[in-house]
Structures are given as structure tokens and as C-alpha cells.
Amino acid sequence: MARIVFPVTLAGVLLLTLLPARFLPDFGTAVSLYDDKLHHAIAFAVLAALGSLGWPEHKAKLVVVLAFTGAAIEVLQGSQLIGRDLDGFDWVADCAGMACGLTIAGWTKRRVGRRVGGLP
What is the pLDDT of residues 61-81, one digit of tens each? Predict the structure, then answer.
């Protein structure tokens, strides 16, 4: 299931993060500086958790791809075409979110593994 939900979620994250600034009010997104960092962290936590659950044998590749994706988003947001701000701290929030997502996925796998194996 995670292998299906991951690309859909990634597409949604890319759409929202690369949407030109002039369209943001149409989506009701008037975000403050801290909300923006929180949104980045949550989005990348979800992506990392889904990716880790979907492809557990490729966590290192997942981290590299998501880190590159976060950096590319920031570079593109800084372009005149999109009209948003390039902010390196957004990338830091992305990476922090990835760490949280990988941790949550690890906890989830251990808990499910215990239940399947018959342990409490």
C-alpha cells in the first residue's frame, strides 16, 4: 500500500510547494514563517515514512532522493517563475521531517512485527 500512496503523496507535495505564489490564496494558504517550516517537516516525515515502509531495503537511496528533492524544491521556489522564496531552513525542516518519518516507520515496523510474531 505504501508503494502506491508514496508517489501520490510526492506529487501532492510537489504541486503545493511549486505552485506559484499568486495561486496560494486560492488554496487558503496564508502561512507564517513557522507554519511553513512545520508544513515542510510534516510533508517530508510522511514521505520518508511511506518510502521506508514501501521500500525498506532502500532507505539510504530514499534519504538521498528526498534530500535532493527538498533542495530542488528550494531552488525552484527561488526562481522568478514561481515567485516564492528560497529558504535553506526549509531544507533543514525537510531533513528533520525525514528523520522523524524514518523513526516513526521503524517504530511501526517493530510494533507490527511483534504482533505478527505473537509477542505483546
Answer: 999 999 999 999 999 988 877
φ/ψ (deg, to 5) at 88 = -60, -25
State the Cα angle at 11 between 104 and 95, rounded to 5°.
Answer: 40
Instruction: Output the pLDDT for position 63.
Output: 97
pLDDT at 14: 94
Place of cell 516513526: 104
Mean of all residue pLDDT scores within the chain: 86
Give the closest residue to 9 by CA, choosing from 63, 1, 115, 92.
Answer: 1
Q: What is the 3-state secondary structure (H, E, C) of the chain?
A: CHHHHHHHHHHHHHHHHHCCHHHHHHHCCCCCHHHHHHHHHHHHHHHHHHHHHHCHHHHHHHHHHHHHHHHHHHHHHCCCCCCCCCCHHHHHHHHHHHHHHHHHHHHHHHHHHHHHHCCC
Judge contact between 110 and 52, C-beta under 8 A: no
